[in-house]
Amino acid sequence: MFKFIHAADVHLDSPLRGLSRYESAPAESIRNACRRAFENLVALAIEEKVSFVLLAGDLYDGDWKDYSTGIFLSRQMGRLGHHGISVFAVAGNHDAANRMTKALDNPANMTMLSSRKVETIRLAELGVAIHGRSFGTQHVNENLASGFAAAERGIFNIGLLHTSLDGREGHAVYAPCTADDLRAKGYQYWALGHIHKQEFVSEDPWIVFPGCIQGRHIREAGAKGCLLVTVEDGAVSAVEKCLLDVLRWVECRVDLTDTTEMQEVFELVRKSIENQSQSADGRPMAMRIRFEGTSSTADELSAFPERFEQQIKSIGAEIAGDDLWIERVENAAVGKLDLESAYSEDSAFAKLLKDILSTPHNPDEISGLRDVIADLRQKIPSEAFGAESVLNLDESQTIKRLVDEAKHMLVGRLLTGGGVK
After folding, report:
1. Is the dihedral of CA 277, 278, 282, 288 positive or negative?
2. CA separation for the pair 333, 230 (Å, rounded)
3. Alpha-carbon distance 373 to 144, whole Å?
4. What is the predicted pLDDT for the residue at 413?
5. Domains along the sequence of the chain with CATH
6. pLDDT, tens only, 246-293
């Protein structure tokens, strides 16, 4: 019997873009989260006395700013080495973009498998063969799985591969292949990487994405960690999910349906934050609160979003203190409006309301909007529009969202400022 850890997508020292825009953001805590999660991985490996650790790509996050990332990794590998634990890894698309690593030797107990061809590492004392191939360049479009050899008889075969498989939402296509391509090799376990959400594709054989070890933004919400695998008599006997994250990203949805008073809204927020706190496994949280449903309170929320966001942050601070950072408050609730009576009025108010509500949902149909966006890019620092930013204007969905939010805010202010109720 032996154990091993399967982890992927560590993204050591990943930059947290755009955090400077948030006055209350725990930037230092988030910036160090990937390192602390990796330290948790090392501690788990030592505690469980695993025979080896598998890292299925994207250990790094592109090129380093300095050598401190490499020194940190060497220190952690040294901790494992002192306990006789080896590490076998393949490079993913982010690792392949790293120039500094090419100039440094790996720690003595860490093997990075070849990018030129599929390489096999045999651990005779365990009866194990680890087959894997690294990315040689950042963009790998070929089916690397096709080059893996058939399983070796009489031993436990592991495939180590960074791949998008047959595609997953939110992830670029790299080294595409199918689950059947992997099954055909006859391996007992496929240790995959690249997809940041944990997924058990198959259990016969085991084909698994462990997910990233630490969420870095709201699109990586939920518990994150690795897998602890136990092998007995040449077969997997247990696969245990192990939490490693030190900061939990949470999307909190609050249904405002049928609320009529703001006090009801705040009470729902309070209960939602308390529930999320209880299910965060003792981790501090970075939370996005999203209002949904149909309610007459939606108009007031839309009218003065900044004011209500501060009130909601105050509730969060009261409940969780420094263990909660509210990253954003998003209002997708729909107001209960009697627009028929508004349209029937022959007034400037009614005309303005009609003009706002008739704003095209498709940004390309809004005259002059592209010029406004171009002007914004000139006036606001470029980091505000980064890929992880809520103002990523390169995504059409972002522009649609901003148009809808502006429309809701204007309608809300009209209706709460003495117009139609």
Report:
1. negative
2. 47
3. 41
4. 59
5. 2-243 (3.60.21.10), 248-416 (no CATH)
6. 999 999 999 999 899 999 999 999 999 999 999 999 999 999 999 998
